[in-house]
Amino acid sequence: MTAPIHRKHAAPMRWDGVDVLAYKRDPASPFRDVTRQVLFDDPALASQLRYFEVAPGGHTTLERHEHAHAVIVAHGRGRCLVDGRIFELALHDLVRVPALAWHQFRAAPDAPLGFLCMVNAERDRPQLPTADELAGLTSVPAIAAFLRE
Ligand code: MN
Fold first, then answer.
1. How many beta carbons lie within 10 A of that of residue 97, not counting itself?
2. CA-to-CA distance for 16 and 75, rounded, in angstroms?
3. DSSP state of 134
4. Which residue among the candidates 117, 137, 143, 146 is catalytic per the annotation?
5. What is the pLDDT of residue 23?
6. Which pTM does this prediction carry?
């Protein structure tokens, strides 16, 4: 993306010249109904700003990695799991995902969840939980219920 400005569309969180992409290229990562848009990918900033949108009832991959995320809820509502805690998410909430924290974002059953997410341009690949790690996470009833929804 090289143009100085990308005009917003009438549809929320869509812009001229910004492609709406599949969320993950790796089909082994379990997720449901998520799109991805790369808004800024500037080597001078060494970071990327992406916009993800989870359709009602959908969710991102349960994952962790060395890089952190800075997340801003920009559309709709839902919940997230971050480092063993579950949070309700409303418009304009900020979420910090620290290094190596298990995390997942879920849209409400009746609303999408759209969020801006800032990351390092150079970053490690997400890790998925092993069977043992998943058993550890789901030993907490609230987390088990969150992941089942
Ligand atoms: Mn992540």
1. 22
2. 18
3. H
4. 117
5. 81
6. 0.92
Residue 1 has pLDDT above 60, yes or no: no
Q: What is the model's pLDDT at position 32?
A: 83
Distance separating alpha carbons of residues 112 and 65, to the nearest angstrom: 25
Mean pLDDT, residues 36-65 taken together: 95
Distance 146 CA to ligand 1 centre (A): 17
10 alpha carbon to ligand 1 midpoint, in Å?
Answer: 29
For residues 124 and 94, give the distance between their C-alpha atoms in angstroms, rounded to a whole number.
23
Angle, in degrees to the nearest 10, between helices 141-148 and 131-138: 110
The CA R_g of the chain, rounded to the nearest whole Å, is 15
Domains of the chain: 17-148 (2.60.120.10)
Give per-residue pLDDT as tens, 108-123.
999 999 999 999 999 9
Question: What is the structure's pLDDT at 147?
Answer: 94
Q: Give the Å distance between the CA of 64 and the centre of ligand 1.
A: 6
Instruction: Please say if 117 is a catalytic residue.
Output: yes
Going from the Cα of 68 to the center of ligand 1, the distance in angstroms, rounded, reads 8
